[in-house]
Specification:
The protein is built from six helices and 46 strands. By secondary structure, it is an alpha+beta fold. Strands 2, 4, 5, 6, 7, 9, 10, 12, 15, 17, 18, 20 and 21 form a 13-stranded mixed sheet that branches. Strands 23-32-31-26-29-28 form a six-stranded mixed sheet. Strands 38-37-36-33-39 form a five-stranded antiparallel sheet, with no helix packed on it. α1 runs antiparallel to α2, α1 packs across α3 and α2 packs across α3. It holds the Pfam family SH3_3. This is Genome sequencing data, contig C320.
Length: 688
């Protein structure tokens, strides 16, 4: 029994001795990695571990130092062995020095830069030789804090540390010491330390906490530099602040559009006597802070009160007392606003700070924390809501039932609804059970219909499979829109349903030419003209008709007849003898044999009066016609290319006039708004 106890005791002692060795061995890879990143920081940590009161920690520190030494010695012995072996066999291959891997602690998110955009100026000293840079904690520094130099590399404008030397652009500019615990970081410059080098160094001073649980709070760091010629900078101070949130805000808020919203729950989590600034900003409302609350802020501590952005400055206790009052913070929406608003609270201390721990980007600023509160402003009379189906498709000359539309309005049972299209007519069914009657429908079977009545009855009509019928105008093919507008008397909603009207396929045989007695005999009597390129042959006399086939300038055709369309343009019905096809082409794209214009076309003489003179404003005409864009062309006629566009209502200056092959008058105009000169059809402008 005694032997068993002795064995167990011996085994326990062995395990106790071996446990630190196992831990040190497991830490060795990470220690080697950290030594590559920051050798001085690792030494600093190992020295602190040696002083630790726990029995295992000093043992782990000693073993790590010993194994790191052996690791260094092993690589040295390997290098000597390799060199000796190469020399023994007289292998003359040149040596290639591998570049040393440099790890940037900033890029690895292990440290933060304190003054990333600092400037160093010295107008009377050519360099900083024998000068010094001192960086030290002036408030709240701890034994876990570390000040050091960023290790960027040897590239141009880069800072590099090796051993105790610091270099700029690959050239040593001085040596450094300290920076551990609360010991100041001191850099002594040499003759290579130019102003640019000193500035780059100041911009790459870093802070790191070597503790996994650093002391919460701020640290104050002071920078001071001398130029070696007697010049000493004024101390520059920056604050390091932990990233733990110091601001509490409530959850999202809701208020009716005609009411005030009292917001409570905004508070600061910091020492009561700490002086801070909190900025409250609303996007679509005004904020009112109550002054002179007991133990709170006075009116002079509140800037821009009763505005969209209010600033409070005082101690944490004063700010919290004011914001905790039942009427301490009042929000009221802007006039006519309803919907989602945002109240943003931002805390700052008025000093330049950086935040710890590091993140992907660090900017020097004075903001400690910022949070937002969502505010929903509910309208007292919300507008109607229209729900519509997706895009609709139909064929030429075919009825299209449109269902899937619904209306809602929580406050108003009665609505006025308009349904409007451009290229067709709408029909509303009047005998749907519990739906609208003819008395509730105005202008039925037209382009624009008005429905009035109870929302339930309107929805019954709209939901019926044949409640709303759309039909495009005769032979129309193209796009249209059904525009639905609902009004409760004060607010409206508007939605649009796209409609595509497809042209019907046609099977036909070649038509025998008709009414050709007035044109010369023969298989063809006209030529297609215009600029090079294809010309559309359409199914009817107008651009609204779909293209049937194409032809090219120089093609010979036979004229069947000519007509004026609804826009008063001449179109020719033509026949292609070679293919047996027929169709319609604009008059300005056709030249009839033996005549300038077709005999049935009236002759239009140019005006004897000159075009209107330009006014003092440089314009003397206005683009007229249906709303939209009009083309300006390079010549008098649609055969010419488009050089620009104008819109209805634009002002123009008339420069001259001419006529196309169809006898239509065109004006040469200047468009001041775009600086374009071109031709536009006379019927599209009105002269002063």
């Amino acid at each position: 029994m005694q032997n068993l106890d002795t064995n167990q005791s011996s085994r326990s002692r062995n395990e106790s001795r071996q446990r630190p060795l196992y831990k040190a061995f497991n830490l060795l890879p990470e220690a080697r990695k950290q030594r590559t990143v920051r050798q001085d920081a690792l030494k600093f940590v190992l020295r602190k571990w040696k002083k630790n009161e726990e029995r295992e920690i000093p043992i782990i520190s000693k073993r790590l130092q010993f194994w790191l030494f052996l690791s260094d010695w092993w690589w040295l012995m390997s290098a000597i062995f390799l060199i000796s072996g190469l020399a023994a066999i007289n292998y003359a291959n040149p040596w290639h020095k591998q570049s040393e891997k440099i790890t940037d602690c900033v890029k690895e998110n292990q440290c933060i830069v304190l003054l990333q955009s600092a400037s160093v100026d010295d107008f009377f000293s050519p360099d900083f030789d024998t000068g010094e840079l001192t960086v030290k904690f002036t408030a709240n520094g701890t034994s876990d804090d570390y000040l050091g130099i960023r290790n960027q590399g040897d590239g141009e404008d880069e800072i590099r540390t090796k051993d105790n030397n610091v270099s700029y652009g690959g050239k040593i500019i001085g040596s450094f010491e300290g920076g551990k615990e609360t010991e100041p970081l001191l850099v002594k410059f040499n003759t290579s330390a130019t102003r640019e080098a000193a500035q780059a160094l100041v911009r790459n001073i870093v802070y790191q906490s070597v503790s996994r649980n650093p002391k919460i709070g701020s640290r104050q760091v002071e920078f001071k530099i001398t130029d070696g010629d007697g010049g000493i900078s004024k101390p520059f101070t920056i604050k390091i602040q932990d990233k733990d949130s110091i601001l509490n805000v409530p959850s999202s808020q809701t208020v009716k559009e005609n009411a005030n919203l009292s917001i409570s729950g905004i508070s600061l989590l910091s020492a009561d006597n700490l002086t801070l600034t909190i900025t409250l900003k609303a996007t679509n409302g005004t904020l009112n802070i109550k002054p002179n609350v007991a133990k709170g802020l006075t009116a002079k501590d509140i800037s821009n009160n009763q505005s969209t952005q209010v600033t409070l400055t005082g101690t944490v206790k004063q700010i919290n007392s004011t914001l905790a009052d039942s009427g301490g913070l009042i929000y009221r929406r802007n006039k006519n606003f309803s919907g989602e608003d945002m109240l943003t609270a931002t805390v700052s201390d008025g000093e330049k700070i950086v935040l710890w721990p590091p993140s992907n980007s660090e900017d020097v600023n004075s903001n400690l924390d910022s949070k937002s509160i969502s505010i929903t402003v509910v309208p007292t009379n919300p507008p109607p809501i229209i729900t519509v189906p997706s895009k609709q498709f139909t064929n030429q000359n075919t009825d299209l039932p449109i269902s899937g539309m619904t209306l809602s309005d929580p406050n108003n049972p009665n609505l006025t609804v308009t349904l409007e299209v451009t290229n067709g007519i709408l029909t509303v069914k009047t005998d749907i059970p519990n739906g609208l009657t003819a008395n509730n429908i105005e202008n039925n079977k037209t382009k624009k219909i008005t429905l009035k009545g109870d929302t339930t009855k309107i929805n019954k009509t709209l939901a019926n499979a044949a409640g709303i019928i759309y039909r495009g105008r005769q032979n129309y093919a193209g796009s249209d829109n059904l525009i639905i507008t609902a009004s409760d008397g004060s607010k409206t909603d508007r939605e649009t349903i796209g409609i595509t009207v497809n042209d019907n396929p046609v099977i036909s045989i070649a038509k025998v030419p008709e009414d050709v007695s007035s044109v010369p005999s023969g298989s063809s009597n006209a030529t297609i003209v215009g600029e090079p390129g294809q010309k559309n042959i359409r199914r009817g006399p107008g651009l609204e008709y779909p293209t049937r086939h194409i032809a090219y300038p120089g093609d010979r055709v036979q004229v069947i007849k000519s007509v004026r369309n609804s826009d008063n343009f001449i179109w020719y019905h033509i026949y292609f003898p070679q293919s047996g096809a027929d169709g319609w082409i604009a008059g300005n794209l056709l030249a009839v044999d033996g005549q300038t214009t077709y005999p049935s076309q009236p002759q239009i003489q140019p005006p004897s009066q000159p075009p209107p003179k330009a006014s003092s404003r440089g314009t003397n005409a206005t683009v007229s016609g249906t709303p939209g864009t009009k083309n300006m062309r390079s010549g008098a006629g649609t055969a010419y290319g488009v050089v620009g566009t104008v819109r209805t209502g634009d002002r123009l200056q008339i420069l001259g006039s001419s006529y196309d092959r169809g006898g239509y008058q065109w004006y040469k105009v200047y468009h001041p708004q775009s600086g374009t000169t071109g031709w536009i059809a006379a019927q599209l402008i009105s002269s002063d």
